[in-house]
Amino acid sequence: MNVLGPDLFLVIAAAVLIAGGIYLVLERSLTRIAVGLVLVGNGVNILFLITGGPRGGAPIVDLTPEEAMSDPLPQAMMLTAIVITLALTAFLVAMAHRSWQLHRHDEVQDDLEDRRIARIAALQSAQERGDSVRVTLDEEAAEVRDETADITEEHWLAEEDVR
Amino acid sequence: MLQLLIAHLAAALAAPALVRWLGRRAFLLLAAVPAASAVWALTETGSVLDGAESIIRIPWVAALDLDLVFRVDALSWLLVLMVGGIGSGVLIYSSRYFSSRSTDLGRFAAVFVGFAGAMLGLVTSENLVQLYIFWELTTVFSYLLIGHYSDRVTSRRAAMKAILVTTLGGLAMLAGIVVLGQEAGTYELSSILANPPVGTATATAIALILVGAVSKSALIPFHFWLPAAMAAPTPVSAYLHAAAMVKAGVYLVARLAPGFSTLPIWQAIIGVLALLTIVHGGVRALRQSDLKLILAFSTVSQLGMLILLVGSPFQAGALAGMALLGAHALFKACLFLVVGIVDATTGTRDLNLLSGIGRRMPVTAVIGALGVASMIGVAPFAGYVAKEAALEAIIDGQAALAPFGMPILVIFALGSALTIAYGLRFWWGAFATKRGVTASLEVVRPPLLLVAPPMAMALAGIATALLPGLGETLLTPHAGSYPLGEPGHLAIWTGFTPAFLVTLGAFAVGGTVFLARRHLSRMAFPWPEQWDGDRIYRNTLRRVDQAAAAITTVVQRGSLPFYLGVLFLVAIVGAAPGLFRSTVGANLWFGTDLIVIAASVAIVAATVLVVRARRRVKAVVLAGITGYSTALIFLIYGAPDLALTQVLVETVTLVVFMLVLRRLPVYFSDRPLAASRWVRLSIASMLGLLVAALAVIVPQSRVHDPISDRIPTAAVELGGGKNVVNVILVDTRAWDTLGEISVLLAAATGVASLIFLRHRSTERPRPGSLEDVKATLGAAEPDPIGNLRQPRSADAPTRKANWLVAGMTLAPHRRSVILEVAVRFLYHTMIVFAVFLLVSGHNAPGGGFVAGLVVGIAITARYLAGGRYELSAAAPLQPAFLLGMGLFIAGSTALASMIFGGEILESAILHWTMPVFGEIKLVTSLFFDIGVFMVVIGLLLDILRSLGAELDHQGDVLDEDGEPVRQALEPAGTIERREP
Question: B188-203, pLDDT tens digit by residue?
Answer without folding.
Answer: 998 999 989 988 999 9
